[in-house]
Structure formats: C-alpha cells, structure tokens
Amino acid sequence: MRAPSGSNTKDNGPSASSHATDVLIVGAGPGGCTAALQLARHGVRTMLIEKAVFPRDKVCGDALSGKVMRVLGRIDPDLVARVNAHAHRMPSWGVTFVAPGGKALRVPFSRHTGEGEAPGAILPRLDFDAILFDAVKRTNAVQVLEATSAKQYTRTPDGWTVALDGGRSVRCRLVLAADGAHSQFARHVAGSAMDPRHQAAGVRAYYEGITDLDPHGFIELHFLKELLPGYLWIFPLPGGRANVGLGLRSDHVRSRELDLKTELQRLVSSHPTLKYRFANAQIEGPVQGMGLPLASKRHPLSGEGYLLIGDAGHLIDPFTGEGISHAMISGVHAADVAHEALREGRTDAAFLKAYDRRVWRRLGQELAISTRLQDLAHQAWLFDLVVKRANRNPALADTISSMFTDLDLRARLKKPGFYMDLVLGRRLSQ
Ligand SMILES: Cc1cc2nc3c(=O)[nH]c(=O)nc-3n(C[C@H](O)[C@H](O)[C@H](O)COP(=O)(O)OP(=O)(O)OC[C@H]3O[C@@H](n4cnc5c(N)ncnc54)[C@H](O)[C@@H]3O)c2cc1C
C-alpha cells in the first residue's frame, strides 16, 4: 500500500495501456479529490481518473457551507487559506429566507457578522474544484489520469478491471465511484435506480448588475408559491455578480410540465419581488441544468469491492440542495474504510458496510430532518407564519439562526409541538 514512485502523472500516451493500483477513484469532484487526499495521508496506492480537463465547470449554486470549510481544515489547513484568498470568493455571513407571501427573514450564521473569517462562502466551482484537484496533483502520492473516462467495470477474483477510453485499462482491488449525479457505476454496477420523488432538477446562470445584493454575502432563498417545495436562489459573488438558479423535485417538474430554464428567466423578469432587482441585470452565458440525487431515500453506499461517494451515493440534502460537503465527508470515510479494508485483506461487501454505517452516523440525523422539512415546504402558509413570527420575535429568529449549527435545535423541527407553539404564538420551549 505504498505510494507509487514517480507518480502524479498526467499520462494519456499509447504506452500507458495497462495500469495497476490498489484503489481506483473515478471522478475528481469534491468527493473524489477529498478521498484521494485522505488516501494519500494513509499511504495507500491510489489512482484518480477524471474524464474532464481542469479547470472544468460543474453546474452548481457554488455555495460552500461551514461544513465544507471544516473538512478542508481537517485535511489540509492550507486549502482553507487558498479558498479564503481566492479573488472570486464571496464570504457569506448568513441566509435571507423570502417566504411565499414576500416577507423576508435575515438569519445570520454567526452572532458576530463581519468579525474574523466568514462561516461560509460562495466560490464558482470552476475555481473551487481546481483548487482541490491541484492539491491532489501536488501530493505526488496519487497517480492522476486526466481526460480519461472509465467505460466498463469487470469483476475479477482480485478486484476489478476497468476499461478506459483509448483502449487502456486499470486493474485495482477497490473502486471508489465519485463520478457524480449521472454516475455510470451507481446505475449500471451498483444498480441504484433514479426515482423522480428522490431526485431534483436544478438550473443556474450567472448574472451581473442585480441590485440590492447583500454586502455581507447573505445567500438568498426565495420560496416562491409557484415553485414550492423548491426555491429560487440568488448567491452573491464579488463585483456585483451572482449565481442565480432554481431547483425543484423532478416529479413536480414532470407533473407541472415545467421547462426550468425558461422558468428561471420568466421569474426573474416578471415576479413582483424580483423583477425590479433584475431590471438592468445581464445574464452571462446560457442557463445550464443538472440533476440532484437526493438523500430522502437511503441507497446502499457499498458492495463487493466498491464504495459510492457523494452524488454517486445520492447524498444531497433534500431541503437545501447542499451536496459539496456531503461528497467531501463521504470521501473521507470512504478513504478510511478503503485503507482498513486493504490492511485487513477484506474488500468484501460485509466489511465495506462499515462505510455506510459511518456516513449515516455522521449525516443521517440531519438528512432525516431535511427530508421532513422538504415535506413541510409544500405549505406556503407555514413559511409565511414562521417568517412573520420570527420577524416579531427575536428569540425565534435566534433559534432559527442557531439551527444552522446546532443539530439538537434542528431536531425540534421534527416535533409537531414546535409547530403548535408557533401557530398558537406560545413561547418556544427549549
Ligand atoms: C443546480 C445545482 C445547484 C447546486 N448547488 C449547490 C450548492 O450551492 N452548494 C452545495 O453544497 N451543493 C450544491 N449542489 C450539489 C453539488 O453540486 C454536488 O452535490 C457535488 O458536486 C457533488 O460532488 P461529487 O464529487 O459527488 O460529484 P461531481 O462534483 O459531479 O464530480 C464528479 C466528477 O466525475 C467525473 N466523471 C463522471 N463520469 C466519469 C467517468 N466515467 N470517468 C471519469 N470521470 C468521470 C466528472 O467529470 C466530475 O468531474 C448543486 C447541484 C446542482 C445540480
């Protein structure tokens, strides 16, 4: 399990027709890169293949939560510094919810907005993913094949033979599939089916010239009546730019026969709460879309000789759409379990189940709460009520703010009593 000598190759030549490694990671998004960095720390012989040439774009809202920054800090504090120093990064100190009735609620992530380093950030994925991939290349401990696609996976007595494009192949003992929302591995090898009730469609575009963007980088979530249980977002970027998009569960997109790309442009130019802010805004490039596999249904994350990371494992938060941190958290656990599996000579499905257990232990509770919130998000009146009451009641506003960092508080959202207190205007018991 040592690092290969002279590795970190960007090696697509005809002589490189067959490779061997212990762990093959497919996909260099946040999940794959985090797994690669963690495997490098463990000294496991690892190869990372990526079909795109970086820097590459990824359709996303570009919002990096506090969880992303914490995982980065644990893997390599230098990465936090590189993200924070990036010229395209907007520090984010909170979130503004706009209820269906039009009332807004500003919820800071911290009691000390503007002091020290911001808890969150918005940084285009073109830049963020390049920082991570660059860090993997710089470790010199992971063999990297860029512009290389995994085409076919064949099980062997020792592990896998993976056919790559250009007639090349890799033999490995474990596959870590981090190949994203449209993962070939998840669909064709692991057999994870797409279910429109547990999948969302999202579209986004970059705009410049929107008025009234928050100076402290508060992200905006607009719960418009016509989009529930989905929402429209405006995530500010430096220089008066913003990432603007919307997301909605795929079964609703189908039943309402919506074209989300058209819907985004229609809403920003005609919705009463948005149109004045977009009056002089310019769209930069096309509106682009992509699927979000939601964690409202648990899929197995492992099997004989493989682990699924991030979107390939359907780990996106069903309420907020957050998936970058979950890809990174699952990447760390996948690397740890892969390391232990190789050390014990146990790459069988029973041993690898430890990975599922660790991921659900870490993320299961908050994903269950978000699943509940997604159910409630159909109720326009409830949003209006929460926002109205919180605007009048600083204690409730503070409770909501703390929910971003305090899971016990968030768990109260699962209890019917919380809503009864709210509806009846009772004091929110702790
Ligand atoms: C519209 C939209 C908005 C979103 N907004 C946010 C947000 O603001 N914040 C947030 O946290 N999350 C957001 N998400 C979710 C987030 O984008 C994903 O959860 C995250 O990118 C998952 O990372 P990943 O590493 O699993 O996959 P990806 O980032 O998709 O990376 C997968 C990689 O695998 C490569 N690949 C695919 N197939 C192959 C193959 N056969 N061979 C080799 N390489 C391959 C791809 O080129 C890609 O680089 C959003 C998603 C969408 C669609």
What's the topology here?
Elements lengths: L17 E3 L2 E4 L3 H13 L3 E5 L12 E2 L1 H10 L1 H8 L5 E3 L1 E5 L5 E5 L11 E3 L2 H15 L2 E5 L3 E7 L2 E6 L4 E4 L1 E4 L6 H6 L9 E10 L10 E4 L8 E7 L3 E9 H6 L4 H11 L11 E12 L8 E2 L2 E3 L15 H21 L4 H28 L3 H13 L1 H10 L3 H5 L4 H8 L7
Parallel strand pairs: 1-12, 2-3, 2-13, 3-9, 6-15, 13-20
Antiparallel strand pairs: 4-8, 5-8, 6-7, 10-11, 11-12, 14-17, 14-18, 15-16, 16-17, 19-20
Bound molecules: flavin-adenine dinucleotide (FAD).
In short:
It contains 13 helices and 20 strands. By secondary structure, the chain is α/β, with parallel strands linked by helices.
Keywords for this entry:
single chain, 430 residues, alpha/beta, FAD/NAD(P)-binding domain, D-Amino Acid Oxidase, Chain A, domain 2, 3 domains, seven-stranded mixed β-sheet, six-stranded mixed β-sheet, 20 strands, 36% helix, globular, disordered N terminus, binds flavin-adenine dinucleotide
What does this protein structure show overall?
Helix content is 36%, strand content 24%. The protein is an alpha/beta fold. The chain has three domains: 18-57 and 127-194 and 296-370, FAD/NAD(P)-binding domain; 90-115 and 196-293, D-Amino Acid Oxidase, Chain A, domain 2, CATH 3.30.9.100; 393-423, no CATH class. The strands form four sheets. A seven-stranded mixed beta sheet has the order 7-6-15-16-17-14-18, sandwiched between helices. Strands 9-3-2-13-20-19 form a six-stranded mixed beta sheet. The chain has a four-stranded mixed beta sheet with strand order 1-12-11-10. Helix 1 runs parallel beside helix 8 (324-344). The longest helix is centred in the last third of the chain and has 28 residues, at 349-376. The termini are far apart. Bound molecules: flavin-adenine dinucleotide. Flavin-adenine dinucleotide (FAD) binds at residues 26-32, 49-52, 58-63, 149-150, 178-181, 184, 202, 204, 245, 247, 290, 292, 309-312, 316, 321-325, 327.
